[in-house]
From TrEMBL:
Name the UniProt record assigns to this protein: WbqC family protein
Organism annotation: Paragemmobacter kunshanensis
InterPro entries registered for this protein in UniProt: WbqC
Length: 243
C-alpha cells in the first residue's frame, strides 16, 4: 500500500500535520492552489504567558488572487519578529535553540512558498525520520480541480491510499476514490501530551512547541498514529454516507 498525503504548504505546522506527513510514502505540496485567507498557509499559533498568539507572515496584497507559489512577504522583517516571539514564548524550554534554528533555516529560502515548505519539512525531520517521496503539484502537469484533481494526483504517483485531514469531508467523493482503487482514511489526531510552558496542554500550536520541549529521541512517541476509514469517520461526525 502506498500512502499519499496532499496538502497546501503550511508554515511551522501543528503536530497533527507533522503526524500526517510522517505516515506518507508520497507527500505532494499543492503549491499551485490559490491562497485562501484565514488558512494555515502563512500562520500558526504559539502559546505564550499572555495566551495564544499568531505567528503570521504578512503578505503582499494580502495574498488575494495569488497561487501559493507566487506569495510574497509584505515586510522583510517578518522572520525577526517571529524569532523574537518564539524566543520569548519558549524561553524556558530545554531545546529552544533547535526550534530557533528551524525558524532561521526556513527563512533563508529563495521564495516565501519555499520557506513555508521548508519550515514544515524541517519540523518533520526534527520529530520523525523522513521517509517521503516529496513532490510539488506545480511540476506534475496534472490539471483539474477539487476532488478529481486530488484523485488524479494520487494515481500519478501510484498511490493506493489517500490519508487526509478533516476538512476533506466537505468535498471529497469518497466512493469515486474507492471505485478507482484508492482507500481513503482520515487522521485521528490522538496525541500523547508533552510538557508545555504555558497553561493546560493543547496540541493546536506550532510544532516548534513539541521540538523545544521534548528530547529528539522521544518526539515521535508524541505524534498521533491513529487513522479512521472514511465511512467510520463520516459516521462519527454524523455525516450521511452515500455510496
Amino acid at each position: 500500500m502506498t500512502t499519499v498525503v496532499i496538502s497546501q504548504p503550511m508554515y511551522l505546522p501543528w503536530p497533527g500535520f507533522i503526524s500526517q506527513m510522517a505516515m506518507a510514502d508520497v507527500l505532494i505540496w499543492l503549491d499551485d492552489a490559490q491562497f485562501s485567507r484565514g488558512s494555515f498557509t502563512n500562520r500558526v499559533q504559539i502559546r505564550t504567558s499572555g495566551g495564544s498568539k499568531w505567528l503570521s507572515v504578512p503578505l503582499v496584497g494580502k495574498g488575494v488572487d495569488a497561487p501559493i507559489r507566487c506569495l510574497a512577504a509584505a515586510r522583510t522583517d517578518w522572520h525577526r519578529a517571529h524569532r523574537d516571539l518564539v524566543r520569548q514564548a519558549l524561553r524556558n524550554s530545554p531545546f529552544l535553540q533547535e526550534a530557533l534554528s528551524i525558524l532561521d533555516m526556513s527563512a533563508t529560502s529563495d521564495t516565501l512558498c519555499a520557506a513555508l515548505v521548508k519550515s514544515a519539512e524541517l519540523c518533520l525531520a526534527a520529530c520523525h525520520p523522513p521517509r517521503s517521496d516529496i513532490r510539488q503539484a506545480s511540476e506534475m502537469n496534472v490539471p483539474g480541480a477539487s476532488w478529481r484533481r486530488v484523485l488524479d494526483l494520487v494515481h500519478t504517483v501510484g498511490g493506493t491510499r489517500y490519508l487526509t485531514g478533516h476538512g476533506a469531508a466537505n468535498y471529497l467523493n469518497h466512493a469515486a476514490f474507492e471505485a478507482e482503487g484508492v482507500t481513503v482514511d482520515y487522521m485521528g489526531y490522538e496525541f500523547l501530551p508533552w510538557p508545555q510552558q504555558h497553561g493546560d496542554f493543547s496540541p493546536y500550536v506550532t510544532s516548534l512547541d513539541l521540538i523545544a520541549n521534548v528530547p529528539p529521541e522521544h518526539r515521535t512517541a508524541h505524534l498521533s498514529r491513529t487513522t479512521l476509514p472514511w465511512r467510520d469517520f463520516l459516521a462519527a461526525k454524523g455525516i450521511a454516507v452515500s455510496d
